[in-house]
Write a structure and sequence with these properties.
There is one protein chain. The protein is mostly beta strands. It has two helices and 19 strands. The protein has helices at 34-37, 178-183; strands at 2-7, 10-16, 23-30, 43-45, 51-56, 60-65, 70-75, 81-82, 93-94, 98-105, 112-118, 121-127, 137-138, 145-148, 155-158, 164-167, 176-177, 190-197, 201-207. Strands 4-5-6-7 form a four-stranded antiparallel beta sheet, with no helix packed on it. The chain has a four-stranded antiparallel beta sheet with strand order 10-11-12-13, with no helix packed on it. A four-stranded antiparallel beta sheet has the order 14-15-16-17. The termini are far apart. Residues 84-94 have low confidence and may be disordered.
Amino acid sequence: IYYSILSNNTQSVYEKSLATGRSKRLLTFQVSGQNIDWYDTNVAIDANLTHIAFSHDNGSLSLYGIAKNERRLLQKQITCKANEQEATTASAISGACQAFYKPAWSPDAQIIAVHKLVHEGEITTLLYPFEPESTPLELPVGGPTFAWMDSSSAMIVAGAYENLYYVGTFSASTATDLLRATFGSTFPVRVDSFRVFQNQYIALTFTP
């Protein structure tokens, strides 16, 4: 089994043999800011048990290869900067800031979905770590929670404003608002969490 432990500003990932009961530390990285608040979602291991995606240093994203003990930076966190007048209000913050959290592997272990935070909001973004020439793909909707469908070509994304989207064709950037389509335009809840079952059912918890 694989598990992680957070201690102060350091997070470690371990591999434990159920046969012997022994644990081996694979990876250690520094965390701060939002990484500490979301520590339980900093690490994701793929279905093949060969690579670990991890968010660290308040929003950078890296890839760790278990067999070769190699780590590679995928996306670097960029801190928002104030404008030339060095104003301190939130409206004065500018620059191409970005941070990447909550990595989640696709079922085929080829794509990493991440929760990308920018100055203007949040974007669900797809990364293709084994395609060197690829660029990140930003979905037309964004939110703090998402789940892969079994096909690895579709996702369910809980938006930031009481929406639950089905995103079916990444290249076409299409999205269907499931709650509005089912219950009408004034579905009065905020989606807190959800799970997809058998690739066709969704169980969700919500706040009225």
